[in-house]
Amino acid sequence: MFSTTLCYLERNRKYLMLHRVKKKADLNEGKWVGIGGKFEEGESPEDCLCREVKEETGFTLRTWKYRGIITFVSDKSPRGTEFMHLFTSDDFTGEERDCDEGVAEWIPVEDVMGLNLWAGDRIFLRYLLTDMPFFSLKLVYVGDELTEAVLNGSKIDAASAADQSGIRTGS
Predict the structure, then answer these.
(1) Which one is predicted more confidently, 167 or 69?
(2) What is the domain range of residue 99?
(3) Mean per-residue pLDDT for 40-60?
(4) Residue 63 to residue 99: CA distance in whole angstroms
(5) d(CA 160, CA 94)
(6) Per 3-state DSSP, what percentage of the chain is helix, strand, and coil (rounded to 5)?
(7) What's the CA gap between 83 and 145, in Å, rounded?
(8) What's the rounded Cα separation, in Å, for the pair 89 and 46?
């Protein structure tokens, strides 16, 4: 088991998305993801969040919202189950810089679901965009296929929940 953070930075109704095209042997290769990474020894979720955002973007977070915990179970993960702490922030300072893990781009929130995303990411992004209160989501993958999704202890239909149509963005 291991823990990570993931943050969606928002500015002017756009999310800063990372297109994972730079790292070799990247489980996320070709996908668009938020900003984040693995915990270092002794870090809290907030410590990891702030460090990863600074390392990958150059931005310093001033405030953030802790939005949920995602449990990833995947037969492709060499480290086993991942506990991902999910955050959003629209309050940061600094100058954006290039990331060595991918190409960062500000994407209008209404266009995010049209990107090459993991099926499970479509589920939790919908919850972020509809401002769902803090949630727990378990996502089970076999290969690249999402086979199970459980929201706050109740199974949901993974295929229809991950469908990109019908997203409400408030715009």
Answers:
(1) 69
(2) 2-161
(3) 97
(4) 22
(5) 39
(6) 20, 45, 35
(7) 19
(8) 12
Tens digit of pLDDT for each residue in 112-159?
999 999 999 999 999 999 999 999 999 999 998 999 999 999 999 887
- As beta bridge partners, residue 89 has 9
Residue 107 vs residues 125, 138, 147: alpha-carbon distances, Å: 13, 26, 28
* DSSP codes of every residue in 101-153: SSEEEEEEGGGGGGS---HHHHHHHHHHHTT--SEEEEEEEETTEEEEEEETT
The mean-pLDDT minimum among 105-109, 111-115, 160-164 falls in: 160-164
Is the residue at 171 inside a domain?
A: no
Q: CB 137: neighbour CB atoms within 10 A? A: 22
Number of domains in the chain: 1
Q: Residue 74 forms beta bridges with which residues?
A: 141
Q: What confidence score (pLDDT) does residue 118 get?
A: 93
Rounded Cα distance, 8 and 35, in Å: 6
Within-domain flag for 170:
no
Kindly report the CATH number assigned to the domain that includes residue 157.
3.90.79.10
Q: Report d(CA 92, CA 61) in Å as an integer.
A: 4
